Amino acid sequence: YTEAWDTDKKSIHVMPDTPTILLAKANAANVSNKLYTQAWEEAKKKGYDMRADAIPIRSAKASRDIASDYKYKETHEKEKGHYIGCPSAKEDPKLALAARAMQLQNDRLYKKAYHDSKAQVHIPVDAMSLQAAKECQGLVSDVDYRQYLHQWTCLPDQNDVIHARKAYDLQSDNVYKADLEWLRGVGWLTEGSVDVVKAKKAQEILNDRLYRTRPDELKFTSITDAPDVVQAKINALQLSDV
Fold this sequence. Notes:
Layout: H1 3-10, H2 19-30, H3 33-36, H4 38-45, H5 55-72, H6 74-84, H7 93-117, H8 127-139, H9 142-145, H10 159-176, H11 178-183, H12 194-206, H13 208-211, H14 227-239
């Protein structure tokens, strides 16, 4: 009764083109030491470049010359202090003073052309911004700064990718709020701020005492010969029964 079920359990049917299988194959190719060293093994089979002007040969010759020159002058370097009466040339006051004067002279001559020409600027208006843009582009250029060894493949819903995104968001939020955290707790007087001035202006606009003046508070006298007063007297005379 269970024989067919047991036989079916032992047979595994996995499609060869599922995303998991393809990802596993790509990861196996990335971490394969054989594929990583395949180009190096093929280069070793072709032999070595032993020409006289090859870079390793020239480097070895230069190292040999440097070492030979050092061994040749080793005794002389040890005997330098005995000639001037000091353990070394750096402790001799006269040599130290001469070295200091030479350094100052070199700095003055080195910066002389700069100080002479720093006040004479003959460049277009957009040259400074263009130069700054080029330098910024060179600093942020991934082509010159980074060299990728492998092209890794990962799914967007992996745990490490999700964790990295959350870490980036937290770091970005900390950098964004750095100025606010620095300003938090710093003392500040509100006198003269925008909100205080706006509140004062609004109070002056809404002040009923300044906006309106009662008639009994005004100091005025009626003009007797005004046109309306004269017309009122004429009408009173015309309507008078007397």
